[in-house]
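Quick one from the shared queue. A colleague (R.T.) flagged N-formylglutamate amidohydrolase as missing a structural entry in our internal table.

Convert sequence to structure tokens.
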Amino acid sequence: MEFNYLIETTNSPFWAFAVHDGHDIDKDLHPYLIADDATRLREEDPYTGSFAELPFNRFIVATSRFQLDLNRIRKDSVYLQPEQAWGLSVWNEDLPREHVEQLYEIHDQTFAKIDELIQSTIQDHGYFVVYDIHSYNAKRQDQFESVDTETNPEINLGTAHNHPKWRPFIDHFIQSVRDQNVGLPPIDIRENVKFRGGYLAKYITDRYGAYGCVLSIEFRKDFMDEWTGQLYPEKLQSYKQLLLHTADSLPDFFAHEERK
């Protein structure tokens, strides 16, 4: 069974992950799939792979989270029940158990690969930073619903799993977002309002939190129509520039920390 992801490495301690960017479903699973393309696209994080086009190492998943979700623990990584998938029925009752077990094995194998990548980064640089990039829906009722901006920040920064030692870096990142000058109004970035960071962030920080930080960066889907999938290219480009702005500040921040 195919589960496709792209790994690009460079001589950097920084990683960009986009584990929900993909939309592909393995052909062997198509006969058992109930959720249609439009429904799946709405709950995926399209264009987050584009956000991850940073001068970092990159880990971009092309397979849909509806096949296997790397931001869930093993037993919840295949959406077998509606309560695992926003009330949606994803698979019919004929989905073979051997397919499910194979997907669980791929989950194990992929996290073993992530272990290898993070360990190698620590060995080479002594520390790491992960931008764990996502997007989220703020119009749950219909396309014409007004966004409640009090409860849906423009950027929700999930930081709950990080070691307290990374507080200065988290503050630095937040300030670099607020100081941006890429043609956007002031960015409403807040921590742990909608999301606190998922399983990927917890997995990495539980094992390697003394050496690095995971920022789970959730963009509200202002860069697209979350119901139709229509992209707003200028907004997308502005958000990409915003992340590049934050990336530019990282080497100087860590060089200063090392000099302390």
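Residues 5-259 form a domain with the Aminopeptidase fold (CATH 3.40.630.40).
The chain has a mean pLDDT of 95.
Added to the table.
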